[in-house]
Amino acid sequence: MEYIESPKNDHIKQAKKLTTKKYQKQTGEYLLDGWHLVQEALASGQTPKRIYATEKFINERDLKPFYDQVTEISPEVAKSLSDTPTPQGIFAIMPLRAQKLPNKLSGQFLLLDGIQDPGNVGTLVRTADAAGVQTVVFGNGTADAFGPKVLRAMQGSQFHLNIVTAKLADVVKGLQAADIPVFGTELNPDAVPYQSVDAQTQFGLIVGNEGNGMQQALLEATDANLYIPIKGEAESLNVAIAAAVVMFHLVGA
Amino acid sequence: MEYIESPKNDHIKQAKKLTTKKYQKQTGEYLLDGWHLVQEALASGQTPKRIYATEKFINERDLKPFYDQVTEISPEVAKSLSDTPTPQGIFAIMPLRAQKLPNKLSGQFLLLDGIQDPGNVGTLVRTADAAGVQTVVFGNGTADAFGPKVLRAMQGSQFHLNIVTAKLADVVKGLQAADIPVFGTELNPDAVPYQSVDAQTQFGLIVGNEGNGMQQALLEATDANLYIPIKGEAESLNVAIAAAVVMFHLVGA
């Protein structure tokens, strides 16, 4: 098994670059950090292009079936590859599966309109996964799906549902053409309380930017805009929290 | 107006210590960072013991009514007081209001059983505030309510609802003695789907540690334990997300 000791090794420098959107696009690859995420990748049936693991990991975990893909790395290399201060010591280079919306849209969709915080983006995808939503559409201005912080919050949900980058205005039109109702969200009592809409087998739900909410043009294109009545004195809810409350209501019991 | 230029000034060193639980206890004070939080404090009618603000803040915001409380600080002092890389430049030392549960319990309670992540704790309190829950009880092992990260995620909700530190087993007994139903949460299909419980005018809802969930003894002391059916392949939900879904269901339309 190959062993890499120095963070200055070219393969390691390449792998580190896979945390940025630019190199992900160039190479069609991204980098996973940590055992839970690597496990999810392996369980999904996707083959890592390479696994980098410290000796401790190679000994303690059963990586034998992937022996040809594994390169041993020093703890120093692990530190240089991770954006966390105490990395576990296992990484995988994964193929970026280019995903597109099918021509015939069906099911439940979450649309992200300019969600900037990577933790929010990852939590939104994880929550959509738990709610059984099949597709998350990343609109303009939304944090890159395969950056380290998003991956950490997403907890492997990219292996369970479709993640698509698309122009949200087009997706809204496509959903409506397929008779799938599209709901926006806004912090505005002129909108409809979310509880007044029944559970839906098919829907598109749009959530908007942390500070500015959804784009006006999208708010005007939806079938209805929903809000969560605030009962206390909080000014607003975190966007991932708000999306969770509405999504679980829409998917129903 | 007094001006402090050096981060080594004794008052500044004292103020910085107020971000730790130990000094909060000793002094009965804590430190707010940022205009939104200071605004919430002022709007609540609580008087800051001192406001530290950079020249920019003093000129741009109307701090005149609080002139006697304001000390001007240099940008270097602002940097040293904040745990964010680019602080806004305004801080307030606030009194820690010691809050206790009343003898006669009533209303809606959120109980935190060992929630470790400060962002989760703050988001839970903010969400409880939005849902109209009146009291959040911090149990053993839960992150300190007045540390910088919790304060940031809480967004000022500590001024809107009661934050109490107490032994959860005692609170559960007290709630049940007052005929208030207590619900636990667990990731276990043996529990009851949350949708099968109706909205409640009074309740206690317990959420547990990110990794280990609620203490077994508490799970056994509740009236019922609820779970959120997972429809996709996600293993679990973030604790603040799960609490939000159940809380908004329990408070009802």
Automatic annotation (TrEMBL), chains A, B:
InterPro entries: Alpha/beta_knot_MTases, MRM3-like_sub_bind, Ribosomal_eL30-like_sf, rRNA_Methyltransferase, SpoU_MeTrfase, SpoU_subst-bd, tRNA_m1G_MTases_N. GO terms for molecular function: RNA binding; RNA methyltransferase activity. GO terms for biological process: methylation; RNA processing. Keywords: Methyltransferase, Transferase. GO terms for cellular component: cytoplasm. Residues 31-100 form the RNA 2-O ribose methyltransferase substrate binding domain. It comes from the Bacteria. Belongs to the class IV-like SAM-binding methyltransferase superfamily. RNA methyltransferase TrmH family. This is rRNA methyltransferase.
